[in-house]
Amino acid sequence: MKYTQTYTDIFLKENIMQRLNELTFDFDNSIANMELCMEQFHIGLKECKTKKLNNTIVVWNFAGFINMCAMELKIYIKSIVSSTNEWEMRTHIKTSYLLIHSFFETYNTIQKDYYGLSYHEEIGNNFTNDLKDIIVSIRHFRKLYLNNIKIIRNKIIAHLNSDISYHISTMETFQLSQTIETLFEFDGILNKIGAVLNKEMKYVMSNIDKIK
Hints:
The protein is mainly α and 212 residues long. It has nine helices and no strands.
């Protein structure tokens, strides 16, 4: 196989191997904590639905979605860095790109209800500025990475090209350093959204009778 490997890829792999135990430990802790959070989101959403707190459901649902994506992203990055075979690593890279593509498909639906919540301006200017910053970050990410991710998703994941050599050639071109850059920038967006939602959830829970 003629795998594309830049000098940065080689350096990155060497660095990862030296810190693999430490990285795996950190990923395992993060994933475990996110799983506990997912359970709380699940419980909270059930209670909101029972009490018919429609606005609160929108916020909790969005926050649960972000937490789930962040957790799955950590799982994929862990799988990428701990791979012992080139094809194995590239398979995990391919799957991580599918996660990003699926995120934007679902985000396009969820954000319509979320950004339409009427009380957002009541939280304060800093909050509305944070929302605008998220939108700018997402647009920037889409512009840089999404077209390439869509091609990978459409040609070698969702609708497998009948020419298997095309599939193999595409997998060969994946670069570890480029992938890590993409995934970490995506993780940064998820963290940014998560921080805003955490602030909003505190506001919502303090004003639950008014917001519902």
